[in-house]
Task: structure prediction
Amino acid sequence: MTEKAQLIPLEDHILVEAIEEENKTKSGIILPESKEKPSKGKVVAVGNGKILDNGTRAPIDVKVGDTVYFTKYSPDELDVDGTKYLVIKQSSILAKQG
Result:
């Protein structure tokens, strides 16, 4: 298969590629590698929104290409054809960089 699999998140799920935090301080000191989970990523795909009790869909507040910050232990990891993604519910996203 030469083409990458296209993933479409369902409902209020958001597909994110993790952005690794820099391991160097502003003054140039290199910090040891951390095994801490990522908390920042770039949005790759978004679902259509959660279906509310009245039958309408709640809007998604982020779009493809946004950089988002999320709680460290909320994402589920997904490996597709060697590419690692994080799947996050919209409620776990704390902020987006604009």
Summary: Strands lie at 13-18, 40-46, 67-70, 76-80, 83-89, 93-97.
